[in-house]
Amino acid sequence: MGLSAGIMLVASFVSLLFPGLRQAEKLFPSNVALAVVLFGLALGYLSIIAIHEHLPHEHLFKKADVEHKKGLSRAFLIVLAITLHNFPEGLAVGVGFGAQDMHNALTLTLAIAIQNVPEGLIVAFGLVSEGVSRRNAFWAALLSGLVEPLSSIVGFGATRIATVSLPISFGFAAGAMLLVTCQEIFPELFREGREKSATFGVVMGIVLMVSLDHLLS
Predict the structure, then answer these.
(1) Which residues of 70-87 are buried (b: 16+ CB within 10 A; e: fewer)?
(2) Domain boundaries, the chain
(3) pTM
(4) pLDDT at 200 over 90
(5) Could you give the angle at which helices 102-129 and 134-144 cross, rounded to 10 degrees?
(6) Structure confidence by residue, pLDDT tens digits, 169-191
(7) Residues 6+ away with beta carbon under 8 Å from 110
């Protein structure tokens, strides 16, 4: 989880916010360019907040954000939460390719793919601990990740609508990813006195993302 958080945190800036600013500066004066990207960031942040406030879901460790009917199983709600968290990641990849910057898009895609491995394991192990069979846990973890290619199409399509939408799309994806990282992953990481191992994972994720960006440049 720390590895995933580190990768997503750096990707939000290196692969989304900074390229979004560069794109905006090609279209607007400097001060307006910043406002456009920050508008997109706020929009992405508030959009995911709104979804979180109204969509019932469970976390592996921390308490649920939304009250839900008791008829919904905890295992189902965990899968729903992970699926919701995967949406900004796919959106970010789609926006990356929509900008036609292959270096940035490939860096982002590789980073998201790498962090999906521990994330998928977390989902599978969490479901098994809830009494789900190993086979069903495997398929649930796999299917929860399929939202990423679908949301990447949404992100790519948004950048194709108009050139002016590109910096907003970058900001939107960054805002959504920052929300998931700070509100969902970090609180589950730093619990029960495991700060050292969690921080180590975050640092490793940062090192990996920065290295990928440097090596693919």
Answers:
(1) eeeebbbbbbbbbbbbbb
(2) 2-215
(3) 0.79
(4) yes
(5) 150
(6) 899 999 989 988 888 888 888 87
(7) 212, 216
